[in-house]
Amino acid sequence: MTRLLLTNDDGFGAEGLLALLRATEDLGEPIIVAPDQPLSGCSHRVTTHRSIQIKHHGRSNYSISGTPADCVRVGLHQLVPDATFVLSGINEGGNLGADIHYSGTVAAVREGALHGHPGIAISQYRRKDISIDWSRTIRWVKPLLKRLMEKSWTSGTFWNVNLPLSLIHI
Question: pTM for the full model?
Answer without folding.
Answer: 0.95
